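chain below, 362 aa
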Amino acid sequence: MNGWGQNGWTGGQYSLWRVLLGLGVVSLAVRQLATAGGDPVTLVTALTALTLSTAVIVGWWDSPAAALLATVTAGLIVQDSALSPRLWPLVAMLVLHAVAPPAPYGSRMARGRINPDGDWRLPAWLHAGGWIVLLTASVLAVFDADLDETGWTNLANRVGVVTATILAAAPRTRRLAWLIVGVAWIGVAWTGVVDWWLAGLVPAWLLSGDPTWVPAGRHQDNRSGPAWLFYDGHCGLCHRCVRLVLSEDRREDTIRLAPLQGAAFSEMVEPSVRERLPDSIVLVTPSGEALCRSAAVLELGRLLGGSWRLASGFARMIPRPLADLAYRLVATIRHRLFGRPAEACPLIPDELRGRFDLRHDE
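prediction:
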């Protein structure tokens, strides 16, 4: 489709969306199991849906699993008269995922890949497909014959959806269209006729958005230069954190990387500060402030932008002592869960090594 161009979806953010999509089908399968009443066909269909949705959530052969899951979900809709045919957006989302590029960062199939990003991109046509599902379902919902045509809420919803459909055609107004559709669906929910629409509409609405609408955070002191992420070179979890940055941060001048055991850390952090730092990753801002534990993780999410910045914003509502406690609990078992890599630098392609400072501390 002309005019749609590129989007800001990264592999990790798409994997977050994929998990949400799979959880939506899990909730449907669990409902079917709870109401099966011993019917063997319903039990087999629901268990099949549960198994396939697990593959989608984990990201292991999830494209064929999503294609089969779309068929099974359509079967559940036809089989169970209590389920609304309005679940079709969920089926459409599964079909779109089935034809999406495989193995984005965060999926099981991307594990062990040398290039964390894997050159994964969300095709413009697939992003446009999300918009088509979203707008079609929105128009069908607000112009449903079961709705009270004289209500002011319904009239506002219809005007909003028609306006959003027009605005979605132009890239400059697409963000406004996305917000208007979201408000319209709040209005639909207010009428009490949501039914099963939201099971597919929430994934469609999220996929239609563009993560670049939530820009990466600027350095709070407005100083130029990159932030530095210092990690334990012999910690498997820290290596995964580094791979996350390499996959999700597509701006080479934002975050640089170096091991805690290297010369860069000794040069940038005063000895008196190093002595007080706990066992943690350390994020050093351009002004020289050293952040550790949950503060470092939250600032990292803010600098990555998109879904990561949104998640970081919500996580900041957790009291710092509780967040640090959770960090310490994970840190105590990280070596048992993720092992101890022999090399200080994760296995990455040569073109990414320029983001590291691997000088040894003499």
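The chain has two domains: 11-213, 227-355. Residues 11-213 form one domain.
thats it, cya
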